[in-house]
Amino acid sequence: MISRVELETVWAPRLLSVLRIITALLFVAHGTSKLFGYPMAMDPSPNLMSLIGVAAILELVGGILLALGLFTRPVAFLLSGEMAVAYWMAHAPQGFFPIINHGESAVLFCFVFLYLAAAGPGSWSVDKARG
């Protein structure tokens, strides 16, 4: 049986790292879909200076940085803001409820990134290795 102390001191930081890594890899897929049409082709590649182009770059570069756990807090905060803007600009005008306007992933990414900005990268990260 795992003690409460072991859960809080050993396993919680490890699982925070797992949450960060999996979320970041899912986020990278949004960027690669927009920029490279992989693993799923989106609309034609966006102009990199458009809102969608900037979002794609943030998703790709920010997702990679988060997966590595490098500059976790500021990157997560920035990406949280990106997802809030994406929700209010692209999803909310289509209806109030996220299940109706297809904004569930934007809301979830927003709040997971906000949590990571506050909680940090967890025990498996470049940030932790750098001290």
Protein model, in words:
It is a single chain. The protein has one domain. It has 6 helices and no strands. The protein has helices at residues 4-36, 51-68, 72-91, 98-101, 104-119, 126-130. Helix 1 (4-36) crosses helix 5, helix 2 (51-68) runs antiparallel to helix 3 and helix 3 (72-91) packs antiparallel against helix 5 (104-119). The radius of gyration is 16 Å and the shape is globular. The chain starts with a helix and ends with a helix. The chain crosses the membrane at residues 12-31, 51-71, 106-126. This is Putative oxidoreductase.
Note the overall shape. globular
Low-confidence stretches: none
Beta strands, count = 0
Sheet/helix structural class:
mainly alpha
Radius of gyration: 16 Å
Q: What's the helix-strand series?
A: HHHHHH
Number of domains: 1
| Share of β-strand residues | under 5%
Please state the average pLDDT score: 94
The main pleated sheet reads as:
none
* Span between termini: 32 Å
By DSSP (H or I, 4+ residues per run), the number of helices equals 6
| Helicity level | over 70%
Pfam family, one: DoxX
Keywords: Cell membrane, Membrane, Transmembrane, Transmembrane helix
Membrane topology: Multi-pass membrane protein
Organism: Phyllobacterium myrsinacearum
